[in-house]
Structures are given as structure tokens and as C-alpha cells.
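Feature request, filed as a ticket because there's no other form

It would be nice if the structure record came with a short human-readable summary line next to the C-alpha cells. Right now we just get the raw output. Example of a typical job, pasted below so the devs can see what we mean:
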Amino acid sequence: MSLRTIQALTEAGVLGSIMYRLDNPVNQFWDRIVRRTGSMDPRSQTHGWLGGAPELSEQTGKPQSKKPRANTYTILNKAWQAGIQIPAHDWDAAQKDPQGLAANIDAKVQEGIDKALMHPGTRIQELITAGETTVCYDGQNYFDTDHSEGDSGTQDNDLTRAIAAAATPTADEMVDSILKCVQAIMGFKDDEGTEINMNTKDFLVCAPLAYMSPMLKALNAELIGSGNTNIMQGSRSGINFTGQLIPRVTGNKVYVFAQRQSLMGSAFIWQVFNDVAPEVLGRTSEHCKLNDELLFLVKARYNLGYGRWQDACLMTHTTA
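Raw output as currently delivered:
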């Protein structure tokens, strides 16, 4: 992060740059796999989960209607905060050093804001890694082999595949694993027995750092293996892929998510009671008088939880 040009270090100036950063966040990898929603209660929010709408059928008598299947899923809100302490003597000294100490203080505060904006992504990583052992709205683990609702039949978004060496897949093997996940997602049905992702064309592929090379080759190389044409290139498959390495994910696993911006839902829910907001206890505050320090704080109240498991698929590699 480059240092801003500081003419004079002031609380109003730092607060203004914080607000600008909060109002103009950079795009995050999780933007299109999360549905953001408000929370009316500071403690929790219960999400009503309706089953699929009925398909058209030939009318042979009086019109038929059907009540959607109902499920609920509750996400508990949590309070989040972070603060940077600036010793009062450093703040005073920075007034005489606008391009040195002042710039460094300002940069450190902005770094804290960047981390606050990235925090939902940290929660997403935690949800991904816990998905094999944590239930979602249908009472099954988010990644599971036996999801079932109404007329959907048994559905599996927790796949396993044996390859030559689980820890070091080839680009060819990575392509096949990603496409098997896409195939599964596009075939998932709702409780009416209707395929719900058949028109999805955009997918996010997530993998641990150890899979960096094969994932990037699978997503970007024109030729893979023994000079074979990579069918995952968008112009050939009609499907678009975005890749994201996730440091907190470990193991021989690849995750694929449908990317959408739809009221139908997404793979995860981000429910917000209070957005990230700054608070400054400045040079003339009672806190500074008692503790000889300034505080630049950010606070929020929200949480993230599991959305539609049908928008997600996990492939675990084993060694053949």
C-alpha cells in the first residue's frame, strides 16, 4: 500500500480517509457467492427457506396450486471490533513530520480499515473449511453426500476422486475435478424435482495454496497435459471460471461455487445489523487524558452463514 501525501495529520483528515475507504471498497473474491441481507434483531436473524416454485403443467381441470416447502435457518450476529492505539507523544511529533511519522500513522490506520473490509472473506474461509461438519438449512452438513428435499432425490455435493497423487494433481486432473463439480452443481434439483442451476455460466474455483500451480494452469493454460487443448477456456466451454487461492483452506480439496447476483440466493449469507463504522477517541478525549493515547476504532455487528448448498460443491482428492 502506497503512502498518501500528508500535508498535516489531523483527526478529521484521517477520519475522512477512513470514510472514503469504507464507501469505496475494492472488489473481493467472495462478492458473487454471498447474498447480503439486513438483520432486524441485533442478536440473530431467522431466515425463512422456501422450497421451489412448481413447474408449469398441463391444465386438465381446475387450476392447481401448491404451498412451498418451508425451512428455517438462524444466524447469530456477532460484534466485531479492532482498534489502533497511537501514543499521544507520537501524534504530537507527527505534526512536525508530515511525510515521515505522520504518513506512517495514516498508513497504519488505513491498513486496519483494509483488514476490516476483508473480514467477511475470513469468515467465508472458516465456513468453507467447516462445511463438511456443520449443518445448513436442510439439516444436513453443508457439504454432504445425502441432501434430499421433497422430489429432489438424494443429491451429493461432497465428491471424492482418486488421482495419481492427491497432494500434487496435474492440470489435467484439476480440470476434470473442477468440471465434475460444475456438472454436479448444474444438475442439482429443488424439492419440486427441477434443475435450478442449468443456466449458470459463472463459477468460482477455490483451492489451498498447495494447489496453486495446477489450479492456475487449469484455469488459464491454452494447452495442458501432453499438448491437449484446455476445454475450460471460456470461448470453448461457454462457461466462465474465476480462481481464488484460500490460505486458510488445507487438504487435498477443490471447492467450486456458482457465482450469481440473484434474489434466489447464493452459497453464503452475509447478514448485517451494523456495517463497519469508525470511532475516534482523539487528542482532547477523556480517554487520551487518562491513557495518554489516541484510539482509532472500527466496529460492526454482523455474521455470515450458509446459504444454498446447491450452489457449492467440494471435490476431495485421494491417492489411487
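Something like this underneath would help us a lot:
Residues 61 and 89 are 84 Å apart (CA to CA).
Residues 11-34+41-51+71-129+271-304 form one domain.
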